[in-house]
Design a protein that fits this description.
It contains no helices and 12 strands. The chain is mainly beta and 124 residues long.
């Protein structure tokens, strides 16, 4: 089995920074796209940023220029550097993997895996 463990959430003042980490563990051959989603109270879960195995990224318009997603393929870890945080960034942030290869010959896959979530609160 594969597990995702997130860390780095917390309380920060507006304009501050946080760095989220999400490490995948288990029997892993490779991981396709890794991403961060967030869900604020009373709202739907939304994509914040994603990065594929080649390093291509995409961001929600609301975080462009403030957040940076990166990954360490050797450690099966994805990061989200969040700068210039705003109160509207307050949410539970979830790590996601769209596809992970856990076996070869024959190939075996796991799809749409989620971390447990980490709370980010931006408040003075």
């Amino acid at each position: 089995q594969v597990q995702l463990v997130e860390s780095g959430g917390g309380l920060v003042q507006p304009g501050g920074s946080l760095r989220l980490s999400c490490a995948a563990s288990g029997t892993i051959f490779s991981i396709n796209t890794m991403g961060w989603y967030r869900q604020a109270p009373g709202k739907q879960r939304e994509l914040v940023a994603a990065i594929n195995s080649g390093g291509s990224t995409n961001y929600a318009d609301s975080v462009k220029g403030r957040f940076t997603i990166s990954r360490d393929n050797a450690k099966y870890t994805v990061y989200l550097q969040m700068n210039s945080l705003k109160p509207e960034d307050t949410a539970v942030y979830y790590c996601n993997i769209d596809k992970v290869i856990i076996g070869a010959a024959p190939a075996r896959y796991l799809y749409n895996m989620w971390g447990q979530g980490t709370q980010v609160t931006v408040s003075s």
